[in-house]
Amino acid sequence: MQHISNDKIQQYLIDNPNVMPSQVADALKVSELAVVKALPKDEWHSIPLTEMDGLFNCLPQWGNVTTIITVSGNIFEFKGPFPKGKYARGYYNLIPKNNGFHGHLKLDDITHIVIISKAFRGKESYSINFFGRCEEIVFKVYLGRDEKGALLPEQVEQVKQLINPV
User: Fold this and answer.
1) Straight-line distance from the first to the last Cα atom of the chain, in angstroms, rounded to the nearest whole number
2) Whole-angstrom Cα distance, residue 146 to residue 40?
3) How far from 160 is each of 20, 21, 88, 143, 166, CA to CA, in Å?
4) Per-residue model confidence (pLDDT) at position 2
5) Short-list 133, 129, 94, 87, CA closest to 110
6) Mean pLDDT on 2-31
7) Which of 18, 35, 37, 159 gives a 20 to 30 Å CA spacing to 25?
8) β-strands 126-131, 112-117: how paired?
9) How far apart are CA 92 and CA 114, in angstroms?
């Protein structure tokens, strides 16, 4: 990873308004977290790591979301409810109700949680992004959409409560 000034990242974002943070990171050879932190302040909000357990307790109640994992340029997507989980043997183990999305999260390696509200392909979008020790994205959870492609309003409300708790 290179060190590039925030100003250069911001200029790239201005010149390329439709690119996603991951694309900017690849193009500039910087971490995705560096790109996120260069976004306009109204497009991202950091969630304290102390709120992680609460977040994982409420996510399964939100209904259908899209969880994205990117590894070596490959993108894996799961559309459906985020599963409940429990801690065991150093991991947060995702336990689906049926044969759904499951896995083992090493939450001790999560260093940043960031909510991004940036339009994607001309549509309002929200994602909860989990970053690792090297400022890399570990996984993202995007809010669900209805059959017309609109965000689910109850999920938008949930995210807004995370951003601005009462």
Assistant:
1) 38
2) 28
3) 21, 21, 31, 12, 10
4) 66
5) 133
6) 89
7) 159
8) antiparallel
9) 19
Residues 6+ apart with CB under 8 A from 100: 78, 80, 81, 83
Task: Please name the amino acid found at residue 130.
Answer: F
Q: Which segments within the chain are labelled E, that is strand?
A: 44-47, 64-71, 74-81, 84-88, 91-95, 103-105, 112-117, 126-131, 137-142
Tens digits of residue pLDDT in 52-105: 999 999 999 999 999 999 888 899 999 999 999 999 999 999 998 887 788 999
User: Does residue 33 sit in helix, strand or coil?
Assistant: helix
- CA distances to 9, 10, 73 from 67, in Å: 26, 27, 16
CA distance 53 to 69: 20
> How many Cα atoms within 13 Å fall on the side-chain side of residue 122?
1
Helix, strand, coil in percent for the chain, rounding step 5: 35, 35, 35
Q: How high is the pLDDT of residue 165?
A: 77
What is the DSSP code (8-state) at residue 103? E
pLDDT digits 0-9 by tens, 72-87: 889 999 999 999 999 9
What's the confidence (pLDDT) of residue 42?
92
